[in-house]
Amino acid sequence: MLRIVVGSHNPAKVQAVKNVFKGERVEIISLNVASGVQDQPFSDEETIEGAINRARNGLTESDAQIGIGLEGGVVETKHGLFLCNWGALAVRESSDVFIAGGARILLPDTVANRLLAGEELGPVMDEFTNRAGIRKKEGAIGVFTNERITRADMFSHIMNMLVGQYEYKIGQQR
């Protein structure tokens, strides 16, 4: 049985991994591991680094064969502040790390300005929506797309790209 570790206890991230491996013979465990980046990553590079660190740290702290890191961040552009989301899949028996990115959406100025002032998106979204735990549920992407895309949906898309790259590489090695 394939053991997969998710480098987070966040229910939206864990659900995304479960969505992609549904019906397969896998054991999915979640561990709260360090991302090694700021609580609010502020670039694609930092968000990617956080995802890779979560995937690798999950492998270090478990006996899983595959480590998954999913990380959300923001990117400043001339058009405003966008959500960004990245994932990494690390393989224990090789140096392979697969990387994929997800959907982007422009944040409203009222939220963006607070992030630019140093706050973190999760607590800002809780206050903005007057609800607790947004990051563990629909996420900012769910709020600002009227739940047409939730955080688990978005990370599921990233997971499909990660697993597809992994499967392609395995197929090429045969």
UniProtKB/TrEMBL annotation:
InterPro entries: ITPase-like_fam (IPR029001), Non_canon_purine_NTPase (IPR002786), NTPase/PRRC1 (IPR026533), YjjX_NTPase (IPR050299). Transmembrane segments: none annotated. Phosphatase that hydrolyzes non-canonical purine nucleotides such as XTP and ITP to their respective diphosphate derivatives. Probably excludes non-canonical purines from DNA/RNA precursor pool, thus preventing their incorporation into DNA/RNA and avoiding chromosomal lesions. Keywords: Hydrolase, Magnesium, Manganese, Metal-binding, Nucleotide metabolism, Nucleotide-binding. Residues 7-159 form the Non-canonical purine NTP phosphatase/PRRC1 domain. HAMAP family: Non_canon_purine_NTPase_YjjX. Binds 1 divalent metal cation per subunit; can use either Mg(2+) or Mn(2+). Homodimer. This is Probable inosine/xanthosine triphosphatase. NCBIfam families: inosine/xanthosine triphosphatase, PRK03114.1. It catalyses: ITP + H2O = IDP + phosphate + H(+); XTP + H2O = XDP + phosphate + H(+). Its EC number is 3.6.1.73. It is an enzyme of class 3 (hydrolase). Its cofactor is Mg(2+); Mn(2+). Mg(2+) binds at residue 63. Substrate binds at residues 63-64. Belongs to the YjjX NTPase family.
